[in-house]
Amino acid sequence: MTRSLPRIALVAFVVGLALHNLAMAELWQLGVRGPALDVVAAWKDVLLVAAVAAALWGSRSLPLSLWADRLALSFAGIVVLYWLLPQSWLGGGATPRGELFALRHDLLPVGAYVLGRLLVISSHEWRRVAVALVGTAVAVTLWGLVDVYLVPLQWWRDSGVPGWFEEQLGLAYRGLSGLPENWVLNTGDEQNPIRRLVSAFLSPLASAYLLVVVLLYLVARRATRWTVAASGIAYAGLLWTHTRAAYLALAAGLVVLAAVRRRWIPLILAAASLGAGVGFVKAFPHIGPSTSYTQAELEILREQGRANPDVGTDPLGGSDASTASHLRNLRDGVEAVVRHPQGYGLGNAGVNASRTGVPPVAGESTYTEIGVDTGLAGAAAFVAWMLAVLAALRRRSAWMTAVWAAVLTIAVQTDVIGVHWIAYVVFALAGLALGHGLPDEEGT
């Protein structure tokens, strides 16, 4: 069991984390709430700790042979140091609970990376992981498309999802009756909001990022009728998430894949994907699954419109609410890190601050959130670790090099390590590629 647990954990993360939010919301609806649901939701953390412990027991040593390994350990050390430092020394206002949330948030990808570095996997076992990856992407897409076209938004308003987010996670959403506002695309027409694919993740962003990872894997493999069919389904899912950052990340990953493989096909696919993405963004308000706002939601939207009269609705014009918010948060985050280079301490940025009632000093961008929590030293260690992994992957796995480049691109405007599927699965796969390696993506 000790030898097999790390491999079982990897497959469990691939599949289980795609279902996690939906399962927790349903349990909340059934009455499993508060500390009891927190215990259930911690299955992934317990499994990661157990898998790393089992892998360390088998190897009897930490992986430290690569610069990426040492930088990961350095970053983890800085995170722990900032957790120990009193908030009053740094000017932060985080609560002890928020500090614990941030400690877990920052150390999870390190733990997953260590798990991957220690993992020994055969070609047969890798095929199981690959089937889980592709099967999960296809299932996420198919379920998501059925949902947005056949399941009324009101069903979700009345489900356990609002309670799971607000009462259990402390994330209060006003504009869509407790559902995350990014579930719909605000077209500017009060009668024609368009639903985005959220699937079992309950998030268009997390769904999109999984699909980017799997699409890059399918392109990196030798083309067969099965990979082409799976690619078509996954790409449709990606389009219906209406996540422009993911469209750009996929193109960036394909360009990197073309460079590493020295082939033109991924480059052609990158250009075609960008073109299709632009066309779909323009067409989506006309062809997407339409829904409707409640009267209370309309009042909130009108209030927000009066408060931000200059915000547009053209998703390609750069002035829409989403783009304006991302740019504003990125700018404010960079200014906060430059103004306060020593950092504010863990728990003062992003969702970890919001969940505990603390005004976030920075939000969304992975880099600025880490800079706020752990100062320039922590941000520099994190970026150095990311770049060291990218450089090492280039010699070991074209697919994971492309995925890593895509993830680094997404991290500019998203707390990408806050997406558990990325933090657990992608970081573990990167560690695996740098350790015992992945089978050739062009093989079977």
Automatic annotation (TrEMBL):
Keywords: Ligase, Membrane, Transmembrane, Transmembrane helix
Segments forming domain O-antigen ligase-related: 233-383
Tree of life domain: Bacteria
Pfam families per the UniProt record, alphabetical: Wzy_C
Record's GO cellular component terms: membrane
Subcellular location field: Membrane
A GO MF label: ligase activity
Transmembrane segments: 41-59, 71-90, 129-150, 197-220, 264-284, 375-393, 405-434
Topology in the lipid bilayer: Multi-pass membrane protein
Alphabetical list of InterPro entries matching this protein: O-antigen_ligase-rel_domated
Identification of the protein by name: O-antigen ligase like membrane protein
